[in-house]
Design the sequence.
């Protein structure tokens, strides 16, 4: 098999891992070496289903000793198999980087022979790139559950970012669908990487510190019956305990044949709502308990912030000239930038509705939840969720990141505002 054929198989096998966006790493080019990394400087491009393809995203091997039922690379699946040697991957990456095809490497692997051997080969690939070829570009490396912590440490010293995928949100799910993995085998490397990252942050101006771009994980949504509330609570715990940069959510795709698995793909809209809820955790000061009551799922009609607001009508409308900053942040249509602008501007003058427009507050949503100088600009102050739904109830629809939305619910913004929200996460 030629290297080209192997690359075809192995890059196809890697496409189901969505934890590949990259940023947060800054390293200047050095004389005698090639490439550099910059904060936010590695460009992203996305496939039509939203997956990032800016890096050379590839598996070292798809020859897996494990048999996770949801995975295309599972041992029992009859697919073409291939493996690349560390030097082959290193030279391929280096060559593509020099031609400006890629800006870095996202290297993952199935578990060939054993976790230690797999982690050792991944580590060797990065060593060749960094130490022999002087590659200074971005490297995102997968951490392998059950692997020896010493090998993981060596890998972390050379990579920009590492991720260990949790995949299934509960231990029961793991037992059922990926019995070779345990919760401990996944959380241990995550905990180790969190410590390595934290140590590096003590020396944050050192460009050669370990894991400058931190750690991430991925959860598969919809392979098990776990509710969105369970998933959001898990994410909250992961951010708190391991200081993760991101939790990625991947809508389940029916790649297995087991009767234990759902026959249909999980809706992308669910994945999108989980990303929105994730933003509320990270940037809006919400707790998981506030976003969703236990064992419930996110509202498909409203984004999670609007949903929270209409579940708490006694808190609205707020007066933008006097409301606490925390309440501004919790108001639909006002994102972190808008809340900050309002707080800064109202320290100098009383704000008008026109001022809010100039601040790019999404008034189409916000006006139902605010007063400006005591005046309410929404439909009626008594609007409840049911009334809002009844006024303009759209059919639940699959959300695409790229097509023009076919409906505009009352509380959502114009298409360009929706597009901006998808990119910036502001709600
Ligand atoms: S360990 Fe499981 S999830 Fe990972 S490649 Fe093998 S079968 Fe797939």
Sequence:
């Amino acid at each position: 098999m030629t290297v080209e054929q192997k690359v075809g198989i192995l890059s196809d096998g890697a496409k189901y891992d969505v934890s590949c966006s990259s940023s947060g790493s800054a390293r200047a080019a050095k004389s005698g070496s090639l490439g550099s990394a910059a904060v936010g400087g590695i460009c992203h491009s996305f496939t039509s289903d939203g997956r990032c393809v800016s890096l050379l995203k590839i598996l070292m091997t798809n020859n897996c000793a494990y048999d996770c039922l949801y995975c295309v690379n599972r041992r029992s699946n009859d697919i073409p198999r291939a493996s690349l040697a560390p030097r082959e991957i290193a030279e391929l990456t280096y060559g593509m980087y020099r031609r400006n095809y890629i800006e870095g490497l996202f290297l993952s692997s199935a578990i060939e022979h054993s976790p230690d051997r797999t982690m050792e080969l991944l580590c060797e690939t990065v060593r060749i790139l960094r130490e022999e070829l002087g590659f200074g570009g971005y490297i995102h490396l997968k951490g392998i559950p059950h692997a020896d912590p010493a090998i993981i440490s060596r890998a972390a010293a050379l990579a920009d970012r590492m991720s260990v995928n949790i995949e299934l949100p509960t231990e029961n799910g793991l037992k059922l669908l990926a019995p070779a993995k345990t919760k401990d085998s996944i959380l241990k490397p995550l905990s180790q990487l969190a410590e390595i990252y934290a140590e590096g942050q003590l020396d944050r101006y050192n460009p050669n510190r370990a894991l400058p771009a931190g750690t991430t994980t991925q959860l598969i949504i919809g392979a098990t019956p776990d509710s969105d509330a369970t998933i959001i609570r898990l994410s909250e715990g992961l951010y708190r305990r391991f200081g993760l940069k991101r939790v990625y959510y991947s809508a389940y795709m029916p790649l297995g044949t087991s009767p234990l698995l759902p026959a249909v793909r999980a809706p992308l809209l669910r994945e999108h709502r989980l990303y929105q809820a994730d933003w509320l955790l990270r940037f809006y000061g919400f707790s998981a308990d506030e976003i969703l009551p236990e064992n419930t799922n996110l509202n498909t009609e409203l984004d999670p912030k609007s949903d929270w607001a209409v579940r708490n009508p006694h808190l609205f409308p707020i007066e933008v000239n006097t409301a606490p900053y925390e309440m501004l942040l919790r108001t639909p249509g006002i994102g972190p930038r808008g809340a900050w602008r309002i707080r800064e501007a109202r320290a100098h003058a009383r704000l008008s509705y026109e001022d809010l427009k100039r601040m790019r507050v999404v008034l189409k949503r916000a006006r139902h939840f605010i007063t400006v100088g005591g005046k309410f600009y929404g439909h009626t102050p008594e609007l409840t969720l049911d009334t809002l739904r009844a006024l303009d109830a759209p059919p639940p629809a699959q959300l695409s990141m790229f097509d023009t939305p076919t409906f505009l619910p009352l509380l959502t913004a114009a298409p360009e505002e929706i597009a901006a929200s998808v990119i910036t996460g502001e709600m």
